[in-house]
Amino acid sequence: MKFKPKIQWLRQLIILSLLGVVVYGASSKEAWGTICDICPIGLLGVSVAGKVLLPQAMVLIGLEVAAVVVLGKFFCSWVCPTALFLRNNKPQVTTEQQASTAKTSLSSNVGILGAALLSTLLVGFPIFCLICPIGLVFVFIFAVYKLFSIYQPGWELIVVPVVLTLELLFFKSWCRSYCAVGAFMSIISRLFRFGPSPMIQGKTCLADQGCRVCKTNCPEQLDLHKDSSSATADCTLCLECYEKCPTKAVRIGLGKSPKTHLCNTSINDNSRRSSNE
Q: Which of 115, 149, 164, 187 is 20 to 30 A away from residue 253, measured at CA?
């Protein structure tokens, strides 16, 4: 019997490895590597707070923009540490909210990103990092490191877990509705998206029988059966739909829209009409 690791385990292993690299780098004597090196909002926040365009920040942001163009919002599933415990906390979305998502998400993303940068400019400090789960996770990790390395406990050991728990309980749709990092990547992904994305392919899809496994397992609540560019713009390439599909009808392909790769629902419907006639 072959051992077949789940994609979720692979994501978690990569995230934990990145956490270890960043923490080790930031705690080393050379002090290379911080959370800002992998967070575009952290980089932008430092630049806006200092009112100066840091060359290093601009290069890193450029690389991250290029990565989003190719891989979409992969950061949310494969890099963000909050994916370790927020992944299974999927919000319930009503039909009306689903219908309005494609129309309002771009303006909402611009508003979230603008609010984060404007508050940083006014305060002179990346204030969003104080409430961002990404920043809070790193604050807690460094507090634990400080406790065991120099035996100096800090208030972060108590306050940060409480804040994270409150955000987890009362802001269940944080990643989709409030995260400035996700908003930044959604904007780029909507404007320039040329990389791979999941789509329905083949005659094995059971959508005509009421199956919606791909949608119910998607953290972003995307519906691959609808012809909408938001299905690729908001995709984080978590591959939950690919792994959970009971008939393996979900494939990873290139394209802005799943229009030409829809399942055979319409084909089955037409064949039924023909047989009835």
A: 187
Query: Is 266 buried (19+), middle (13-18) or exposed (0-12) by CB count in 10 A?
Result: exposed
Pair of tokens at residue 161: 């877990």
Residue with tokens 């990569």: 14
List C-alpha distances in Å: 75 to 133, 186, 187, 255.
14, 11, 14, 20
Closest C-alpha among 181, 165, 142 to residue 89: 165
Burial degree of 272 (CB within 10 A; 0-12, 13-18, 19+): exposed
- In Å, what is the CA distance from 188 to each residue of 9, 72, 80, 151? 28, 8, 17, 43
Whose CA is closest to 204, among 219, 214, 195, 196?
214
Instruction: Give CA–CA dist 148/140, Å, rounded.
Output: 13
Domain carrying residue 76: 7-190
pTM over 0.85: no
What are the CA-CA distances from residue 102 to residues 10, 31, 91, 93, 185 (Å)? 30, 42, 17, 13, 15
Q: How far is CA 131 from CA 16, 25, 46, 80, 236, in A?
A: 21, 24, 16, 15, 22
Is there a single domain that holds both residue 15 and residue 105? yes
Bridge partners (DSSP) listed for residue 200: 250
Q: Are residues 16 and 32 in the same domain?
A: yes
- Do 99 and 155 belong to one domain? yes
Convert the pLDDT of each residue in 144-166 to its tens digit: 877 887 777 878 888 888 888 88
Cα 165 to chain centroid distance, Å, stands at: 19
Among 39, 70, 46, 65, smallest CA distance to 195 is for 70
- Give pLDDT tens digits for 71-100: 888 888 898 888 887 654 444 444 444 444
